[in-house]
Amino acid sequence: MKSSFGSAKDTKKKIIWAVLFLVIAVASVYAVFSASKDFSFANVIFHLRRSSPLFIVLAFAAMLCNIAAEGLSMRVLFKSFGHPVSVRRSIVYSSADIYFSAITPSATGGQPACAYFAIRDGIPASCVTLCLIFNLAMYTLSIIIIGIITLIISPRVYLYFGIGARILIVLGAALLCAIGAFFILVALKGNWADKLGELIIKIGLKLHIIKSPDGWPRVFRAEIINYKHYASMIGQHKDAIVKALLLNMLQRSSQFAVTMFMYIALNINVAADKGEVVMNGFRLFGAQSLISIGSTFIPIPGAMGYTDLMMLNGFSAIMPEADAAVLELLSRSTSFYCCVILCFIVVAVSFFIGKRRSAGDI
User: Percent helix, strand and coil across the chain, each rounded to 5?
Assistant: First the structure.
């Protein structure tokens, strides 16, 4: 299966999205500064100097676990269908998904980028498609499950947010349920996959993305036959699906835990009641899960800006606004910006090594 992922035209698009990502990132940080009148970098330095190195390390470890858990989930699914991959390659797949999801609207670029690397490694396109659809369904389901657990254990966390954020959380939850149900049906029902593929081809022809009206339907039909073959095997791999769900829950929990560990790091050394600090950390974990649900409804790359303001809004319920701004900046920088930069490095190295190998240089 030939991909235009590495073409000059596609490279230009990726550069444009990367520049847009930087612009929105700067604007997002500025929005936090503007929203908190008492925020200053001097305050950030003050908090860091008295912070706990152990919990800062744990925050960064949670960020790395976020990347690893997604890769391991895809590895489990690929292996269950007879296509084992190394842990190292699975990290490349998750890095591609995270990076391109972050810089494209509604995370539309993550799955195609992940598929590019998996297909380049020799995994059939039909198998890659099915596994990515199922992994996306498990990813969606994991967010819903964690959100429900949060509301059962501590329903007042929802009240941390203003009316606008609460509406976004409800809309995001509804959208996640619809997306999860849709992807599960596409994975299980061959007719849905047929219709979805035909629709994509029609749109591609009208937009002149697909140049040959005769070749693609033939290729598509061959892939659909293989896709249905893999889909018919799903019932035999229930254990793999459960493992994928648990790994996706670990991935999301790791991402939310960055805020929890960062809050504890900033406060544990100076608080009189250390138990209350830990409890607030768990409350922030729950708040972060609801923020993740609400940000789903935002089509901006990485939901930047909106996510930052929702974090500031929710965190301010249990701490002064200036401290909330510091926590937002440090936790978001770790869980999102550092994560995206690290994933970019992994993807860039893997991409250029692959290019050199295909050219016969190494």
Answer: 80, 0, 20
CA distance 53 to 96: 30
What is the pTM (predicted TM-score) of this model?
0.79
Give residue 33's domain range: 8-358
Structural domain includes residue 285: yes
Give residue-wise pLDDT tens across range 96-145.
999 888 877 666 677 888 888 898 899 988 788 888 888 888 888 899 99
Answer yes or no: is 2 within a domain. Answer: no
Three-class SS string for 203-245?
Answer: HHHHCCCCCCCCHHHHHHHHHHHHHHHHHCCHHHHHHHHHHHH
Separation of alpha carbons 359 and 347, rounded Å: 18
Domain count, the chain: 1
Cβ-proximal residues to 39 (8 Å cutoff; 6+ apart), any chain? 32, 33, 322, 325, 326
3-state SS, residue 352: helix
Q: 311: how many CB neighbours lie within 10 A of its CB?
A: 25
Please state whether 177 falls in left (phi above 0), alpha (psi between -120 and 50) or beta: alpha
First to last CA, the chain: 23
Q: Which two tokens stand for residue 45?
A: 């330095």
